[in-house]
From TrEMBL:
Keywords of this entry: FAD, Flavoprotein, NAD, Oxidoreductase
Organism expressing this protein natively: Yinghuangia aomiensis
Pfam families attached to this UniProt entry: Pyr_redox_2 (PF07992)
The family this protein is said to belong to: Belongs to the NADH dehydrogenase family.
Protein name listed in UniProt: NAD(P)/FAD-dependent oxidoreductase
Keyword NAD: yes
Length: 449
């Protein structure tokens, strides 16, 4: 009898963990495992700000999928549509070719993209922080602003190049602003013509408080640490318009700047919309056992799915965090294996362990198991947590060695230039326009590809 084919879409926290589990739970004769992924690594996103800041090399946070997954077939490309009735996933290979991939069981773990709003100039000029390429691009961009500011004789241009704006006061935005602010402060000493006092970092958020995930006290502590380092905050404020050399805020202020980093939340992968299933805040609605209601052979988890948070109860759904996605991946693996063997599936249950926010150097805030920490103890918890959560020994060692090297030798603030001249809109990195309409999917699948 042919082996059932399990197709997993997305090799991030949830997808890679699911396949790792499936390789252990099922014998090779029990199932054919296939992963659709645009990259051959699992990106450890929580340390992405360290890559932008040059504290870690890009390779340190790109965990090899082939090292971890020994018998899964890796199909290089992105899923651009699903036809659940025909049980076919349409994949655009990295060559651009479209192929129909039939499945018996489908696992959707395609994560999320940067959430955007209808703000003039956002699509054209905002820089994101969601992929490895974006982190590397951002680092080069920030260093090049210092390079250009150092050679201009126009004070207006110099001030605009030295002003950096980050939108989003959650952990991603706060860590990005904090890590890059350390980069520019440290780099300024290598530019004798620049006055470090002229470098400005602004953090803008429509919410009235920083880091609402960590509670009022730690949010205030993080703000105090960053204020001491010169970061300015505009809370309760949003962005009205973005132009290449200036940003207008909703309170009317116009800030001359060549850099707007947009980290104002995430939206579920556009793949979700191709299924015509129920969604909650854009995420695919799933049952506690991670199956999609009405589609017995489709499972979903991670940022793309709205999963009941049984530990909190009521209408709560699990937040889009790596902590949940990784654990949901384990439940996914167990439940897909149970489905194949006809065993009972289990509901996903995980009590949040809290968050860690690394602000660079000795600055950090964290709330492990409800205990509020700041400064060095919080930093120790943050670094220890990341080392434990990284999925392989090799990745842990790379990160540890890079941290140590950076602490001992510092940064040389080198611009790699690898991505010079490339289009750098959010869409150019996140491929949000790659997906097919329902009609296109049905037409392709109906025609047999
Ligand atoms: C800067 C930053 C910092 C963060 N810090 C933290 C933190 O400190 N703690 C925490 O818990 N969480 C943190 N998060 C959130 C966390 O990273 C996400 O919640 C987590 O990655 C979600 O896991 P996932 O498996 O759903 O998606 P991901 O890990 O993003 O994986 C999705 C995978 O699917 C692939 N993919 C996308 N589209 C397709 C497609 N169409 N076809 C095939 N493959 C596709 C992607 O390339 C990716 O490999 C942070 C996020 C960011 C951006």
């Amino acid at each position: 009898m042919a082996r059932p084919k399990i197709v997993v879409v997305g090799g991030g926290f949830a997808g890679a963990e699911c396949l790792h589990r499936l390789e252990r739970r099922l014998a090779p004769a029990e199932a054919d495992l296939c992963l659709v992924t645009p990259t051959d690594y699992q990106l450890y996103l929580p340390l992405l700000p360290h890559v932008a800041a040059g504290v870690l090399t890009p390779q340190s946070v790109a965990v090899s999928l082939r090292r971890r997954l020994r018998r899964t077939r890796i199909l290089p490309g992105g899923a651009v549509g699903v036809d659940p009735a025909a049980k076919v996933c349409v994949v655009r290979k990295t060559t651009g070719e479209l192929v129909n991939v039939p499945y018996d069981h489908l696992v959707l773990t395609a994560g999320s993209t940067t959430r955007t709003f209808d703000i003039p100039g956002l699509a054209e000029h905002a820089l994101g922080m969601k992929t490895l390429a974006q982190a590397a691009y951002l680092r080069d961009h920030v260093i090049s602003q210092l390079d250009l500011a150092a050679v201009t004789s126009d004070p207006v241009e110099r001030d605009a190049r030295l002003r950096f704006i980050v939108v989003g006061g959650g952990y991603a935005g706060t860590e990005t602003a904090a890590c890059l602010q350390r980069l520019t402060t440290a780099a300024a000493h290598r530019y004798p013509r620049l006055d470090p006092a002229n470098i400005e970092w602004h953090l803008v958020d429509v919410a009235p408080k920083l880091l609402p995930e960590l509670g009022e006290n730690l949010g205030a502590k993080a703000m105090a640490m960053l204020r001491k380092r010169g970061v300015e905050f505009s809370l309760g404020t949003s962005v009205k318009a973005i132009e290449p050399t200036q940003v207008t805020l909703t309170d009317g202020r116009v800030l001359p700047s060549h850099t707007l980093i947009w980290t104002a939340g995430v939206a579920a992968s556009p793949l979700v919309d191709t299924l015509s299933c129920d969604t909650l805040r854009g995420r695919l609605v799933v049952a506690p056992d991670l199956t999609v209601p009405g589609l017995a052979d489709v499972f979903a988890a991670g940022d793309a799915a709205a999963i009941p948070d049984l530990a909190k109860g009521g209408d709560a759904i699990t937040p889009p965090t790596a902590q949940h996605a990784q654990r949901q991946g384990k439940t996914l693996g167990d439940n897909v294996a149970a489905r194949i063997r006809g065993d009972v599936m289990r509901p996903y249950f995980h009590k949040d362990l809290g968050l860690v926010v690394d602000l660079g150097g000795k600055d950090a805030v964290s709330k492990p198991l409800g205990v509020e920490l700041h400064g060095i103890p919080a930093q120790a918890v943050a670094r220890g947590y990341h080392l434990m959560a990284l999925p392989t020994m090799t990745a842990r060692t790379r990160v540890m060695v890079n941290w140590a090297l950076n602490a001992a030798a510092g940064d040389d603030f080198v611009r790699t230039g690898f991505q010079t001249g490339r289009p750098a809109r959010l869409q150019d990195f996140e491929y949000t326009d790659a997906y097919l309409s329902r009609d296109r999917i049905e037409e392709r699948v109906g025609n047999g590809g």
